[in-house]
Amino acid sequence: MATTTSTMASSLLTNRNSIIIPLIGLLSVLFAAVDVAGEPPSVVPSACKRAYAAGGGTFTEDFCLSALTGHSVGAADNGDLALVAVDLATANATAAEAKIDAQLASGGGGGALADGLRACRSLYDAVVHLYQPDCHAAVKDRRFGDAKLCLGRTARAPVACEREFEQRSVSSPVAAEDDALAKLANLAIALSSIA
């Protein structure tokens, strides 16, 4: 009888362990997944909702989510997210400047197209080398009023670039880059407004 009770107790303990060990493993995986995400689930979505409302239709909430998700690990507030948007705008402008340089180096299509590219090159030079370093410093130092003024200049540059091509009646080879830069700059302005 003692052997039967001992066997039953051993069997229950084994059955309990066979359930508990996988359960502990599953919970470990779930907690690890939360740590990998790196940011509270509400930081970016709530910021994008508020930034969209402050942005006056210059970008969509989906654009904000797409731009910031994956780039905002460690962002604690809207000011941190504004800095992320500034840095994304700088990266975009730098890539657009390189694209324009490559097109000009290959002849740029000549004539009106080359003239438009040169005009845009001048605008992007100002964005990359003058405006964005000042914008980054202003947001980093939490001088959001100064940041919004600086970012306003950045947001106007791609609009002026597109106007150069329209005036020359040629298609813009940097339309996508101009659109993205304007939206990123306006996103940074909106996030600075709500910081």
TrEMBL record:
The organism's place on the tree of life at top rank: Eukaryota
Pectinesterase inhibitor domain residues: 39-191
Keywords linked to the UniProt accession: Disulfide bond, Signal
Keyword Disulfide bond: yes
A Pfam family it matches: PMEI
Classification via InterPro entries: Invertase/methylesterase_inhib, Pectinesterase_inhib_dom
Database matches in SMART domains: PMEI
Position of the signal peptide: 1-38
GO MF terms held by the record: enzyme inhibitor activity
Family in the record: Belongs to the PMEI family.
NCBIfam families from the UniProt entry: PME_inhib (TIGR01614)
Protein name: Pectinesterase inhibitor domain-containing protein
